[in-house]
């Protein structure tokens, strides 16, 4: 039996909706990363205005913000390659149903690690 290309346009529309959801996720990560990076600058300015002196910072918010922005970029690039591969598989009839989204699992684990790190940081900072 030869594989047949997918003819139902709803399948392609669903793939496009999934792709757009990944784009929103990547953009959201980039926005949160930018806010995290700038929040450290905001806190430093607030402390400097209270003490009227130069306040040094560890730069943790800057580096963690940059890392989250970079994660958003990785999500966007990964979503493009995954979407193109999926469309190719649907067009050639080689798509296998029931596969786990490796990208979603990896992103969830990375974000869980980021959340764990932030929790530990907040506990230590108390």
From TrEMBL:
Keywords: Cell membrane, Membrane, Transmembrane, Transmembrane helix
Location of the protein in the cell: Cell membrane
Domain DUF202: from-to ranges: 10-87
GO cellular component: plasma membrane
The protein, known as: Putative membrane protein
Transmembrane segments: 20-41, 62-84, 104-124
Plastid listed as a keyword: no
InterPro entries with a match to the protein in the record: DUF202 (IPR003807), IM_YidH-like (IPR052053)
Main localisation: membrane
